[in-house]
Write a structure and sequence with these properties.
The protein is built from 17 helices and no strands. It is mainly alpha-helical and 404 residues long.
Length: 404
């Protein structure tokens, strides 16, 4: 009873403090809101919408079930999740946060995952996509696409580490969910599962497409709200001096590992919002490049409270527990920072500083490369794509309301 009352008082005081802060710093709050809104409608919405729509249709048509049966012999021994986890993992890496959570929740609602399997799966399928790591962080903040190799390797190796560790979480079900366990992939069984799933869904293509569009846009509207909210919170915490206060405690930890204390405030900011934290880290002149990359690797892996709140909101629609996901983010953060540290000398120093001729190719992600231009194109045409998509969503929603 006391804990419940304490929680009520804490939440009430927090919201009251935020309301007072908004009144005290109106211009800063507006600037932070605009920054979050621009990030959402220029980058996040147009880049995630196609992945979300296609994912919904792949699930409806049974393609995910098909992939799941084929990947069962791989995903089950490694991560103790069904084969459909391979699809979620791939889509999570390709599209970025919080696609892995959305797909995991969707598969849990369809009964293709048990509760424990879903909690294992969501813990390692939410990660940053390569375009953000190379385009936004490496090129945009550090003006060095080659750093993307270290960041990507550390990020995804840390991701795999989390998956391997989380396989020990929970108890094994008596029988794997979905198809029975197989010793080797069976194309015939996979095709049979694909056909059964499509027949059981039984929605016309138009209805399936409409549901995919509305569901995807509803999720993205929620994501946009969280991005704006945490952009404002981060700014208010900075002006209230709370960020500096928290940074004092982090400075003591950084000093133990000989990390410049000037990185403490960017680190705290990154715990709330990864883009701002990464940008601030890249601007710290007192730190070496390696120290900056270690901090950014932790920030990207931890994914920030903004992304975690998005995931929590998605998981709240199911019985999936959020705590394993949060615990996995801490593991991922330390693992990614560790991999960035141990890979710096053999990868970056050897291939890029002393022997540039042997460099690992990253030309695809340079500023004027195809993917670099693609990233700039998303930013340029993002608002138009967002407006058109929202118009389609409004039209579909209005028609459905008229039918009711």
């Amino acid at each position: 009873m006391f804990r419940s009352k304490l929680k009520t008082v804490t939440l009430a005081l927090s919201v009251t403090l935020m309301a007072i802060s908004l009144i005290s710093f109106p211009q800063e709050a507006v600037d932070a809101s605009i920054r979050g809104l621009n990030m959402w409608w220029e980058i996040v919405f147009p880049s995630l919408l196609p992945f979300f729509i296609v994912s919904e249709m792949l699930i409806g048509f049974g393609v995910v079930k098909f992939i799941g049966v084929l990947l069962e012999p791989l995903m089950r021994p490694l991560f103790r999740v069904p084969g459909v986890g391979g699809f979620v993992w791939a889509m999570g890496m390709a599209s970025g946060y919080p696609a892995g959570a959305k797909l995991t929740a969707r598969l849990r609602q369809e009964g293709q995952l048990s509760k424990t399997e879903a909690e294992r799966l969501v813990s390692f399928t939410n990660c940053s996509n390569p375009l953000f790591i190379f385009g936004a962080v490496s090129v945009g903040f550090f003006n060095n696409a080659k750093l993307g190799v270290i960041l990507a390797l550390a990020h995804y190796l840390g991701n795999i580490t989390v998956g391997l560790l989380m396989r020990f979480y929970g108890k094994n079900p008596k029988k794997p969910s979905g198809e029975a366990r197989m010793s080797k992939p069976s194309l015939r069984a996979a095709l049979s599962a694909l056909h059964r799933t499509r027949i059981n869904d039984n929605r016309p293509i138009g209805k399936l497409l409409g549901d995919a569009v509305t569901s995807s846009i509803q999720t993205l509207l929620m994501i946009g709200g969280f991005i704006i909210l945490f952009s404002v919170i981060n700014k208010l915490l900075f002006h209230l001096g709370i960020t500096a206060f928290l940074a004092k405690g982090v400075e003591n930890i950084f000093s133990i590992f000989s990390i410049p204390t000037e990185l403490s405030i960017p680190f705290i900011s990154g715990l709330f919002e990864i883009t701002l934290g990464s940008q601030m880290t890249s601007q710290v002149q007192q730190a070496t490049l390696m120290e900056q990359i270690i901090i950014v690797s932790f920030i990207l892996a931890f994914s920030g409270f903004s992304v975690q709140a998005q995931v929590a909101s998605i998981l709240a629609q199911t019985d999936i527990n959020f705590k394993p996901f949060f615990f996995a983010r801490i593991i991922h953060g330390f693992a990614a920072a560790f991999f960035a540290f141990i890979l710096w000398e053999p990868i970056y120093e050897q291939f890029y500083n002393t022997h540039p001729s042997n460099a690992i190719p990253v030309g695809l992600f340079e500023k004027y490369s195809f993917l670099g231009k693609f990233f700039d194109g998303i930013a340029a045409s993002g608002p138009l794509i967002t407006i058109l998509s929202l118009s389609v969503y409004t039209f579909i929603l209005a028609r459905r309301l008229d039918k009711k």
